[in-house]
Specification:
Length: 278
Amino acid sequence: MTDPLLTVDNLEVTFPGRTGVTRAVRNASFTLGRERLGVVGESGSGKTTMGRALLGLLPHSATVTAKTLSYAGRDLLACSERDWQQLRGRRMSMVMQDPKYSLNPVRTVGQQIGETCRLHLGSDRRDARRRTLAMLEAVQIRDPELVHDLHPHQLSGGMGQRVMIAMMLIAEPDLLIADEPTSALDVTVQNEVLRILDDLVRKRGMGLIMISHNLTMVSSFCDRVLIMYGGRIVEECAARDLGNARHPYTRALVAATPSLDVRRAELATVVRDPEWLA
């Protein structure tokens, strides 16, 4: 068995507040190989906070501790800001949830993706343009030349998300964290974006962490799934076995998922047990 890309052991993320310390992530432990790992849970369960902690993107007010937090054997807790600049983009990348908040509104698509090439690959302007057009084509944008010179406000939601994926993958990282990459898209475009991600991950042999609240999508797209509640990972299972989960919270989430095959008078609701946070 090959060594994992990412090793997380007893990860804790806390924030100071007026009423005391908030534990946003509690005792999270998992490993990631060259596979597709889903992270699911309700809003506020700690999914995005954990993903940002893995890339050192949390604000200075956050306190991040762990027994082990390593990428390819490198201790991430010991990284300086300069170390992070070398890792982010080139080795590890993150696709944010909504491109209209993540893309620079005053710079063209080509300028933003090309900057990644020049920063991480040492490309000159001509090579950066060539690589950018090839990457836009790889994410199935029909007219790369046209989109290259557009600004973010001129893009549809699906096209903006593809541009984000292109920007994060152009430096060929080994690890990609996708935070709700399809939540702002309609179902047809969602499926197209997922096919693009699946194709790129398989061809490049990457590790992928898919953060989502969509259990149906994660169960069909990912290899393994982590279920988070109140900052904790309460269960881990193979994606295909999600319907046979053991933890009552996971079973409640599955039961609350709408299905066209099962007719119900009303959807099930999650009845929480305080012991889940113990």
